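In this section we walk through a basic example: taking a raw amino acid sequence and producing a predicted 3D structure, encoded as discrete structure tokens. The instruction is simple. Fold the sequence below.
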Amino acid sequence: MSASVYILGGSQSDFARNWAREGLDIYAMFRSCLEQGLAATGLDPDQIEVGHVGNFAGDLFAGQGLLGGFFAQAFPELNGVPTTRHEAACASGSMALLGAIRDIRCGDCDLACVLGLEYMRNVPGKTGADYLGAATWKGVEAQHCDYPWPFMFSRIIDEYERRHGIDTTYLRAITKLNFANARKNPRAQSRNWQFEPEFFTDSNIHNPIIEGRIRKSDCGQITDGAACVFVASERAAKAYARQHNLSLRDIPRIKGWGHRSAAIELEAKLHHSDGNPLLFPHIQQLLSDALTRAKLGDITDLDGLEVHDCFSITEYMVIDHCGLTAPGESWKAIEEGRIAADGDLPINASGGLIGLGHPVGATGVRMVLDCHRQVTGQAGDYQIAGAKNMGTFNLGGSATTCASFIVGVDT
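The resulting token sequence is shown next.
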């Protein structure tokens, strides 16, 4: 069994686009991303041996399932190539990537395309919120609210308050940092947005409450978008390197990964961890799995992280769950500037889900693509100096399905 899986590159759509407003459908988004990915890598369609699609709610937002059929629809050369769609709410893209990694590691193929996408801005906001609520335990959770996910993640703020105390000023600081990072990213949904200073405060006028303790500034964006990456065996990566006058060391590989799941109900997860300083111990476990597989010591051996800030409290949670601080002390890393672009562990240099955008099925793939950009020095204005090893953290639901990848180059 081959242990090494390489990333040849890929593409990401402009997350500021509203595809429905342009008169374009979900297939147009899929095809455009795939075409751009092939052009960016110099690959031909007939080199793809398997296709994996990450998508959460195409059936709801676009009335479209069976998205794996879009590969051969876009390129007749892909007729007969096996394809699979993966769904794990906001972790759908990561599950698609795990499927491709397993195909390559077991020797079934040498080159896979992983494409994540979500078409979300074609419906009113309340309708979209209800569709996304399909990843709660329907009929049990979030029954008495207008917006299911802000309601759920407000409960996580409450639990931090109960176990450790929390100053929500630091949640505003996370938001402000991620929007500032996004201004440097030419593909970010919010790159041209302007904010009044009061937006980053608890002003009910400038930063209204959405549900509970979640304010508008705390929320990731409703976004149309797609991202794809091409992953390859060592044999295919060597051939690609020769063709493009590269060394194999120049091609990033997936050094480690983690994948853990828990009960769908948030209260069941919090009950399971009651008495533990960490709200979600399985997240600490999966990050440890990824670091161990990558043969790295701890989180500070990474040069940066792309993490799932669907809400600012989610990024706050990742800071202590990854071990950057002691449990309940995430605020220290924020206050000390450790997660800023020039800190010792920059988080969401891309802008994250708050600044860059969150097309649900694309997010896990986009994170890995951004890691590829960072370790190959192709991140432009949001480049992390000297980045050689980058990590991701992607979750689905209320931390129900979680995944992490470590992408790096050998030095």
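Looking at the output, two observations stand out. The chain has a mean pLDDT of 97. The CA atoms of residues 145 and 151 lie 7 Å apart. In the next section we compare this with other chains.
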